[in-house]
Amino acid sequence: MFQRSEHGYGQAGLTLTLNASHALPTPRTGWRGLIDRWAEYAGRLEWVPDLGANVGSPSWFRGLLTCTALCLLPILFLPEVRPLPVAVPAPADNQAWEEIRAQTIAPAAWGSDTGKHMAATDAVAALANAPERPTLELTASLGQGDGFARVLERAGVGEGEAHHVANLVSGATNLGDLKPGTQIKLMLGRRTNRNVARPLDFLAFRARLDLGLVLKREGSGLVLQRLPIAVDRTPMRIQGQVGDSLYRSARAAGVPARAVESYIRAIASKLSLGSDVNADARFDLIVEHARAATGETEVGKLLYAGLYRGSRRTQLLQWNVGGRSDWYEASGVGQSRGGGFAQPVAYARISSGFGMRFHPLLGYTRLHRGVDYAAPYGAPIRAVSDGLVANAGWAGGYGNQVRISHSNMLGTSYSHMSRIVVSPGTRVFQGQVIGYVGSTGLSTGPHLHFEAYRSGQVVNPTKISFASTSMLSGNELAQFRAKLSALLRLPVNGSDAVSRPIAEAR
Ligand SMILES: [Zn+2]
How far is CA 313 from the centre of its chain? Predict the structure, then answer.
């Protein structure tokens, strides 16, 4: 909007031109002239001055007045507020109030003393003693370290009968194998007087996943009835991606906690969980699984542990060799690995080689019978080749030592260990962790003293080659492969497992 002062000044030429082209109107007289003057005055007036500027000036007060008038105008039009007429119920008298109160539900905290209370009349006769229920139905549960007869006695079965029932049941199943928490349904019958125990009329419980037992009174004796239950023992296979946490991902995929723990132990014996298992890797587990026709499930031990990282596949199968169950790597089990020397401690440098040297603790020069690897305390020590643990334990100046005999009259020993994780008679694979670096025995600091033998004579370990033979061969190898391929043919039912809660085998 133009201010009036913007016209004319500085633009005198324009104003003159305008005045020249427009003839000024002749001023009118009378009331018309009054209107003209008023209109001219009103046009000049600034109706809405800025109330932030020129505070206190006459035009500011006029602006304030205009503002107040504009605010008051809508207030004048506000409608009137009037209360609505409604019906108010008459207050209930004492009797009506009691009548209503009897039909309400009072909270237990107030004593729940509602309802109409009837006083006993003369027609009511007191009983000398209340009658007993004819039968009593109850459920007893077997505790940890509990006895079957003891459970029955606790439930009210007589001592003699409880032992008789336990004898009957032990003919059908081993009482020691009953799981703690087993629920036993009981029905106790009528007794002749209150001083004797009620007789057992009926008993039913689940003895095993595949067996239910029922005991019924027929005539004077109890008859045991077996109820076989069909059980599907197809192992369960679950696959998934490792993601942030192998444990959490496997648990989320429906793998029971104990199976995940076995899986991690199995994988950790062959791989480093920290560096070899990344988020993109996929896990593949097969666990013993039993599904009863009645819906219960039981999960047993881990049978197969697989870890797939792109093209690299680690496939471990639990296999029993010479009475010892162990994890066998599927890819390497049938092959004899080529010769060569694997280092017993990864990424370790040789701090002292084989040959004559001055012994720092003994103080004289003698033959250093092995190779020393400088490694931090606790670094894992791995078997350099497949073999059998001949010795594991304290060996004087060698400290904690593991001796392994390999094929071709070769042997190795690992000394000064802080911890040994194998025992004599264990079969070990190349690369399997047998203990951890330490400084036990005659040692100045954590290192591994590694010796090698040929026909019992010490040799330079870096100069010999271990041509390992296969762990399994012939018939056993064929069985191993058949079992592995049978397991790997199982469908992956990870998605099925997620939706169904899994009861872990106790
Ligand atoms: Zn040494």
Answer: 26
CA of 337 to the centre of ligand 1 (A): 28
Q: Report pLDDT digits (tens) over 367-416.
A: 888 899 998 999 999 888 888 999 999 998 899 999 999 887 889 999 99
Distances (CA, A) of 154 to 149, 215, 390: 9, 18, 55
- Cα(418) to ligand 1 centroid in Å equals 15
Query: The pTM is what?
Result: 0.47
Confidence category of residue 467, pLDDT binned at 50, 70, 90: low
Q: Residue holding tokens 């039913």? A: 204
What is the tally of structural domains in the chain?
3
pLDDT at 76: 92
Domain contains 42? no
Dmax (CA) for the chain in angstroms is 145
Exposed e or buried b per residue across 380-408, where buried means at least 16 C-beta atoms within 10 angstroms of its C-beta: bbbbbbbbbbeebeebeebbbbbbbebee
Nearest residue to 285 (alpha-carbon basis) of 309, 313, 311, 315 = 315
The answer on 391 and 323 residing in a single domain is: no
Percentage of residues of the chain with pLDDT beyond 70: 87
In a domain, 377, yes or no: yes
Domain at 330, CATH number: 3.10.450.350
Two structure tokens written together for 233: 């023992």
222 and 249 in one domain? no
Residue 398 CA to ligand 1 center (angstroms) comes to 9
Residues 353 and 444 in one domain: yes
Residues 49, 64: Cα–Cα separation, whole Å? 9
Q: What is the C-alpha to C-alpha distance for residues 277 and 282, in angstroms, rounded to an integer?
A: 9
In-domain check, residue 501? yes
Answer yes or no: do 355 and 449 share one domain: yes
What is the extent of the structural domain holding 436?
349-463
- In the DSSP assignment, the letter for residue 423 is -
Gap from CA of 440 to ligand 1 centroid (Å): 12
CA separation for the pair 445, 399 (Å, rounded) = 12
Domain end point (choices 179, 205, 228): 228
CA 372 to centroid of ligand 1, rounded, Å: 5
Cα three-residue angle 423-264-488, rounded to 5 degrees: 105
DSSP result, 24-47? PPPPP-HHHHHHHHHHHHHHHS-S
User: How far, in Å, is the centroid of ligand 1 from the Cα of 389?
Assistant: 21
In the reported structure, the alpha carbon of residue 427 is separated from the centroid of ligand 1 by a whole-number distance in angstroms of: 25
Domain presence at residue 20? no
**Final residue in a domain of this structure, among 167, 197, 228:** 228
